[in-house]
Amino acid sequence: MKIPKRLQPLVDDGLIDDVLSRLMSGKEADVFVVQCGDHIRCAKVYKEASKRSFKKAAQYQEGRKVRGGRQARAMGKRSSYGRQLEEEIWQNAEVDALSRLASAGVRVPDTYGCIDGVLLMELVCDDSGDVAPQLGNVALSEEEAIRQHSLMMHYIKLMLCAGIIHGDLSEFNVLVDSKGPVIIDLPQAVNAAANNSAEAMFARDVNNMRRYYGEYAPALLQTQYAKEMWALFSEANLTPNSTLTGEFEDNSEAADVDAILEEIEAAREEELERLDRIRDVDEDA
């Protein structure tokens, strides 16, 4: 295929030998299958902020570290330099999160560098060498759904122990190969300890997984892993070796109406975004 303009510098520098195909076009990035020497990898080309449609980006970026006061002021003033810094932080957030999560034992794609807004990383494939499907395109038995859900809760626990919340986890951001789920797409990764919306985003991530796997194993719909893990995390008692049960007894005497309304609104927005993604997939098919 014709080499996209954004990938040409990497071809000129010998980092990419050939662009084989377009894998997908999303709301935040375009992904291409590329040849790098003897390896087939993927190149994730981040879209410019003006062309992205990720909602409430500032909410996700809250709590991310900025190098110094000058940079923080520039970002606050929305100067051209500040906007450039925001782009760098947005792109580097995914590289940093993928690296930290791999070290923590979470299954994520290997990365090979981010150059000029292009992230080179592992192409996750199935046993036949084809691109691994999204979780949302995989039919599961009840037994397999329970197994994968348990593994996903373990990965989410490891993520939280590493201080990271995916922030947009759903069946569209998980690939499935012969070993099980692989978590992808983390440019919006949230700082679990420094973001005021961290708990709500964490609950949404966990409950999205509960909802999806619960379609195949209805008993999972009764689990409370989000509340259980967050309670342990809040008390500094969550560790990679913590045993989870999926049970949680809420001892609060009065309901937090505002929190409930926020959760309902977050769930509504998530469902609208899920439907948008389904339509995008149907249009690309």
TrEMBL record:
EC numbers: 2.7.11.1
Transmembrane regions listed in the UniProt entry: none
Keywords in alphabetical order: ATP-binding, Kinase, Magnesium, Metal-binding, Nucleotide-binding, Serine/threonine-protein kinase, Transferase
Stretches assigned to coiled coil: none
Pfam family, any one: RIO1
UniProt GO MF annotations: ATP binding; metal ion binding; protein serine/threonine kinase activity
Family annotation (Gene3D superfamilies): Phosphorylase Kinase, domain 1, Transferase(Phosphotransferase) domain 1
Alphabetical list of PROSITE patterns matching this protein: RIO1 (PS01245)
The RIO kinase domain, residue ranges: 5-235
Catalytic reactions on record: L-seryl-[protein] + ATP = O-phospho-L-seryl-[protein] + ADP + H(+); L-threonyl-[protein] + ATP = O-phospho-L-threonyl-[protein] + ADP + H(+)
InterPro entries tied to this protein: Kinase-like_dom_sf (IPR011009), Prot_kin_PA4780 (IPR048148), RIO-type_Ser/Thr_kinase (IPR051272), RIO_dom (IPR018934), RIO_kinase (IPR000687), RIO_kinase_CS (IPR018935)
Family of the protein in this entry: Belongs to the protein kinase superfamily. RIO-type Ser/Thr kinase family.
NCBIfam families found in the cross-reference section: prot_kin_PA4780 (NF041645)
Protein name from the UniProt record: non-specific serine/threonine protein kinase
Lineage start: Bacteria, Pseudomonadati, Pseudomonadota, Gammaproteobacteria, Alteromonadales
